């Protein structure tokens, strides 16, 4: 997906909002301009935890984007999408969204083949938005990670 966007828009700066626990992995990708970590999983019933989240959301709202893609299609990602400043918010349609409230955060929606690989689903969503019906070229993940991140990645792959 990042390769597709980079090929199509070589000068684009791509920011990625990510759960804090995955931040180092996303930050290691050479095509990610800015990684914006949010700790939604670690959100606790403490004022400090909520205060930190509100601060991070406020920082996100100060950034303006040409387009925002919601790839997670759940309520949490819908909340983040709703908080982002952009006239165009693209997400999955009602037949392929995971949690229906997510649809409320987007203003351009597309359904994809649910049987397709997740990477193909993401690229399909983005291609539909741009009206591109070409066959996507899916490349392998190409990023450099340090040994601690490699261990974290191995654990994640074994959980799937």
Could you describe the 3D structure shown?
This protein is an alpha/beta fold and 160 residues long. 39% of the residues lie in helices and 14% in strands. The protein is built from six helices and five strands. Strands 3-4-5 form a three-stranded parallel beta sheet, covered by helices on one side. It has a two-stranded parallel ribbon with strand order 1-2. The mean pLDDT is 89.
Could you provide a short overview of the structure?
The protein is α/β, with parallel strands linked by helices.
Averaging pLDDT over every residue, what do you get? 89
**Beta-strand residue percentage:** 5-15%
Order of SSEs = HEHEHEHEEHH
The dominant shape is globular
Strands in their spatial order, largest beta sheet: 3-4-5
Quick one: biggest sheet? 3 strands, parallel
Fold topology:
Blueprint: H1 2-8, E1 14-19, H2 23-27, E2 32-38, H3 47-61, E3 68-69, H4 75-83, E4 89-92, E5 108-110, H5 118-130, H6 147-159
Parallel strand pairs: 1-2, 3-4, 4-5
Kindly list the characteristics that best describe this protein:
two-stranded parallel ribbon; 3-stranded parallel β-sheet; single chain; 6 helices; 39% helix
